[in-house]
Amino acid sequence: MLCYVVFNAVQVMVWWIFDSSNHFWPIWSIVAWGIGLMFHIWGVSRPARVG
Which residue range or ranges hold the 2TM domain (predicted)? Predict the structure, then answer.
């Protein structure tokens, strides 16, 4: 989770400092990685099936 936050914060800073366009391109990795992270957390935290 810390890697997700740090890496995406760095991407946003790079976009903010170096990109002159108004297209917020870091959104693609934030959303895609966030969906994967959400499914991982959901799979780890739900109770195990018995039977």
Answer: 3-45
